[in-house]
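Quick one, T. Sequence first:
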Amino acid sequence: MQRLITTILALAVLGSGLAIPSTHADAAALDSSEAGLVAEVNAFRASHGLSTLVVSDTLTNAAKWMSTDMAVNDYFAHQSLDGRSPTSRMADFGYPSRSTWSGENLAAGYTSAYEVVQGWINSPGHYAVLTNPNYRAVGVGRAYGAASSYKWYWTADFGGVVDAATTVSYFDKGFHARWEGQSPNVTLSPGQSATLVLALRNTGYRGWYQGSPGQQAYIGTAAPLDRPRPELALNWINASRPATTTTPYVGPGQTGWFQFAVRAPSAPGVYRLGVRGVIDGTTWLEDSGVFWTITVR
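Structure tokens:
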């Protein structure tokens, strides 16, 4: 199932002495599909003799927020559930949308940037935005909701001025984590089992989604990385992936819990188990030096 939505286009009257407010935003970070959407849009505009759009941090953050909100809350509309219009959201993220051209294109159900842009090209309202010569900046974001109607949600926010913050990093995947807590070390008899728990806070801008390739968070064995630990594994996902999150979604700023069991080997001794967060197929999360010692009596 795929869907596009009619674009909202706004223009505020510009005065000759109008000052654009200076704003600060974190540097925008695009994953490969988001960067591909920018490239597709700019390639289409270039084929029509239009200017290249510069990636704006503020517009990017607004677009990412909107896509995530739709994916998490399962809706598809320009007005977000908190009642804000696209122009209001862009302004709230620091873009001067009330004093220049601004517009928004949405898409849902598409899995590639190429399909999204082709859908917009074939829709008169969206086509008008893509070919608007007044736009100079763009921000894009996509998000996935496993339990949502359309799964993938795409947002492109357009603006008439290049604001102060336009430094974009294509290397930051948007997935980050910070250690929050863990269960204590354990002492076991040979063959005995115990449950271990780890809490990681999602400090990135992307959510962790169960069932979404490239967005599902796991803990993997560490020190050394990805080393199979069959001597300790008990009902793990595999010998180097003890667990995924206990909840289907962990949003930015939320804490994800990982719970798994270990079984004591038959040989007495002290076994060290290191782990680290990982988004398989995308990136390893920060190394917080998490480990447990399992003492076998």
